[in-house]
Design the sequence.
């Protein structure tokens, strides 16, 4: 099956090969080396001098971690789709008061709306933004939104699960306090690992937090990383080795900008190919995600029909998600995908929608 999924995604053979190493203790020198290399490479990729930690969970684990470590009473969740809703649910289920800034489906959050909301609710401590809303295929205007959050002096959490590795992120320049993702998305590594940058302000909040639990305690991640380039429990060593390899490949192939250009090139090919077939993308024009195309199903077909028929032809796309389940299907642009593979997929999609 050829994968155009939104995670888990196809991984490079070279990366999968590095996961087959014999295990060693997470207290050994062998482990410390790959942990340190992966962290330092991520720091360069995310353009941060702050801390970057590796978590033995998927991205949702860090989402919960932000709420438990860095919010005392109240947070704001920007909701542009299902994953923004999840953030709000995670907040509420951890006993926090959650305000929502919800947009009409298919539309991004605008800096003006966010400014208005923060001006009217002064007791908000932190703002959560989904950079790339995977369910709808929208890229929110993060640099502008981040500026508003910082002008109001709030902590900023960025769910970059389907953005990190495929879309520009400048953690320090944009003032992001926690920016997290998971291995099974743009970095093209199997699931089981999350990674996040954590600012000194976020760590300061964590040191004062009550009832933050143990497993996702950011201060414990800091302690074990500073002390011995490790974690306070056995981490997913194969995934960390794989991430380190993928980041090494990024550097070998010309660095971060080259990788982001590749994502742009693939996204353009997918978008133009879809439009050439007479299909329309769901999101508001100008905010289409470069890592997932959310496409309106053609007349007379449901999104699920397109998905099933493509599967029969050997291509796994992604189903529509949440309220868009019936009306859309999605084409992932994450992980190990070639331009030739995209052309082949588009040709098959043409056959499927014309039938
Ligand atoms: C934008 C976004 N946020 C959060 C998540 C949840 O991440 P994970 O599945 O790694 O827990 C996903 C998963 O698809 C996502 O796309």
Sequence:
């Amino acid at each position: 099956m050829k994968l155009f999924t939104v995670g888990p995604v196809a991984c490079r053979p070279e990366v999968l090969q590095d996961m087959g190493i014999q295990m060693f203790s997470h207290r050994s020198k062998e482990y410390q080396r790959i942990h340190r290399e992966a962290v330092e490479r991520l720091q360069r990729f995310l353009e941060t001098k702050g801390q970057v930690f590796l978590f033995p969970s998927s991205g949702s684990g860090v989402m919960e971690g932000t709420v438990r470590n860095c919010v005392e009473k109240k947070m704001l969740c920007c909701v542009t789709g299902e994953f923004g809703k999840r953030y709000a649910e995670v907040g509420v289920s951890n006993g926090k008061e959650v305000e929502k800034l919800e947009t009409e489906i298919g539309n991004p959050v605008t800096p003006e709306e966010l400014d208005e909301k923060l001006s009217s609710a002064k007791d908000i401590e932190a703002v959560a933004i989904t950079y790339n809303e995977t369910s709808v295929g929208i890229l929110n205007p993060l640099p502008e939104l981040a500026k508003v959050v910082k002008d109001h002096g709030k902590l900023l959490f960025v769910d970059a699960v389907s953005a990190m590795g495929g879309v520009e992120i400048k953690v320090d320049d944009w003032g992001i306090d926690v920016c997290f993702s998971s291995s099974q998305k743009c970095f093209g590594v199997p699931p089981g690992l999350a990674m996040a940058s954590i600012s000194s302000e976020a760590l300061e909040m964590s040191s004062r937090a009550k009832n933050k639990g143990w497993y996702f305690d950011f201060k414990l991640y800091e302690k074990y990383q500073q002390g011995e380039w490790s974690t306070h429990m056995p981490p997913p060593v194969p995934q960390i080795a794989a991430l380190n390899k993928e980041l090494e490949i990024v550097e070998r192939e010309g660095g971060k900008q080259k990788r982001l250009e590749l994502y742009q090139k693939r996204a353009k090919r997918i978008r133009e190919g879809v439009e050439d077939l007479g299909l329309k993308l769901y999101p508001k024009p100008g905010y289409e995600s470069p890592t997932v195309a959310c496409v309106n199903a053609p007349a007379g077909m449901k999104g699920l029909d397109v998905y099933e028929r493509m599967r029969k032809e050997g291509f796994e796309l992604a189903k529509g998600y949440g309220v868009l389940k019936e009306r859309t299907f999605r084409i992932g642009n994450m992980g190990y995908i070639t331009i030739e593979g995209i052309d082949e997929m588009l040709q098959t999609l043409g056959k499927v929608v014309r039938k």
